[in-house]
Amino acid sequence: MGDVLTMLETDHRVVERLLEELSASEPGPEREQLVAKLESSLELHMQFEERELYPLLQRLDAEAEEEAENEHTLARDGLTKLRELLTEPGFAAAVDMLKGGISHHVSDEEEEAFPKLRANVSSDRLGELSTRLLTAKRDANVLDDELAQLTKEQLLEVARQANVEGRSSMSSDELRQAVATTAAT
Ligand SMILES: [Fe+2]
Ligand SMILES: [Fe+2]
Which of 36, 105, 161, 162 has the fewest C-beta atoms lying within 10 Å of its C-beta? Predict the structure, then answer.
């Protein structure tokens, strides 16, 4: 059975990589594309957590849940700033601010909230949510883009979470295809 929390942790790694690429970017179409990718991946991730996961967290730790919601608001503000400063000299500082906020939030989730959820939510429920997350990504057209950014090792892990049979002998392309098909069924 897959575990949505592991998938969300992979999302965190993808977002961190996009932020690194943005730090090194120059103004232009490539930067614009990176920001668009970051916006869609992060927005889908946050909405999924807010709809499907934070209600479960709220019952376990109401304060942690409130903190997480506030941190999402800060991340959205940070994304807005990135957009505003896309071609401006302050862009790198805006990326650093967003990085700082996101890294704080990701630590809170991975070190506190997710372990609490893992210990208290049934593996059936977490497995069901992992399928739902893949479907939401496919419906929002971010799945293919995100899968393209994963290392082979990360692809194998996502395939494991999605219960893809025969994954250990698959190539990266085959893994992407199989995960995308899981989301479609
Ligand atoms: Fe998250
Ligand atoms: Fe979050």
Answer: 36
Q: What is the CATH number of the domain that holds 41?
A: 1.20.120
Residues 124, 163: contact at Cβ < 8 Å? Answer: no
Rounded to an integer, what distance in angstroms lies between the CA atom of residue 17 and that of residue 30?
Answer: 15
Which DSSP category does 49 fall into?
I
**The tokens of 129 are what?**
């949510």
**Gap from CA of 171 to ligand 2 centroid (Å):** 31
Start-to-end CA distance of the chain, whole Å, equals: 16
List pLDDT tens digits, range 102-139.
999 999 999 999 999 999 999 999 999 999 999 999 99
In angstroms, what is the span from residue 68 Cα to ligand 2's centroid? 6
CB atoms within 10 A of CB 124: 9
- 120 CB contacts (<8 Å, ≥6 apart)? 56, 60
Per-residue pLDDT at 171: 96
Rounded to the nearest whole angstrom, what is the distance from the C-alpha of residue 66 to the centroid of ligand 1? 14
Instruction: Compute, in angstroms, the gap from residue 99 CA to the centroid of ligand 1.
Output: 13
Has this prediction a pTM greater than 0.70?
A: yes
Handedness of CA 154, 157, 161, 163 (dihedral sign): positive
**Ligand 1 (ion): which residues have CB within 5 A?**
109
CA of 117 to the centre of ligand 2 (A): 13
Q: By residue range, what is the domain housing residue 63?
A: 4-184
